[in-house]
Design goal:
Strand content: under 5%
Shape: elongated
Order of helices and strands: HHHHEEHH
Structural class: mainly alpha
Number of strands: 2
Helix content: over 70%
Strand order of the largest sheet: 1-2
Number of domains: 1
Distance between the termini: 42 Å
CATH architecture: Up-down Bundle
Number of helices: 6
Length: 181
């Protein structure tokens, strides 16, 4: 509970800072864009670790015991949640508080990195990409989709993450140049 309170206080400080210092682009970049990008860099590594685990499971010649590997992938996905949520919250704060298309584009790309628009949960909300991976692996385990279909879905999500990451890196570089100009 303490960590949630600390996180909320940090978000309040960030929003306050954004309101007060909108026009100092170097300080904005150094204090918010760069740290967010560093968080994302580690998160991307974790996403690709999740994909490698899923590929390993799907490339087994015969998948008799999926319960153990699926539980491991689910646990890994849950470990990513807090970093993903922190990045999403920050991106939402940037979008709400900074009236500059460059920053809004960067923040929107971050939110898109996590969303799997082709997948929705039971209440119709868009799932995160990591939830989608776990979901179609579970569907395969239950016999609802084939191993081949699961491999195709995994490859599709992996390519989306790669494309999103390239867009975020490009936007980050553009913001860095903008901050230094």
């Amino acid at each position: 509970m303490e960590s949630i309170d600390l996180f909320l206080k940090l978000m309040e400080k960030i929003i306050s800072f954004l309101k007060e210092r909108k026009h100092n682009k170097k300080q904005l970049f150094d204090n918010f864009v760069d740290p967010l990008f560093q968080d994302l860099d580690g998160l991307i590594e974790d996403y690709f670790l999740l994909f490698r685990k899923a590929h390993k499971l799907l490339n087994e010649p015969s998948i008799n015991d999926t319960l153990g590997p699926l539980a491991e992938i689910q646990k890994h996905r849950e470990q990513l949640w807090h970093v993903r949520r922190r990045c999403e919250t920050f991106a939402e704060a940037v979008t709400a508080e900074i009236d500059d298309e460059r920053y809004i584009k960067f923040a929107s790309q971050i939110v898109r990195l996590f969303q799997a628009p082709d997948y929705a949960n039971r209440d119709g909300r868009t799932m995160s990409k990591s939830s989608a991976v776990v979901g179609f692996l579970q569907s395969m385990d239950r016999g609802k989709i084939s191993k081949h279909e699961a491999q195709d879905k995994l490859k599709h999500i992996e390519l989306e993450v790669q494309d999103s990451w390239v867009a975020i890196c490009t936007s980050y570089a553009n913001l860095k140049i903008y901050a230094l100009s």
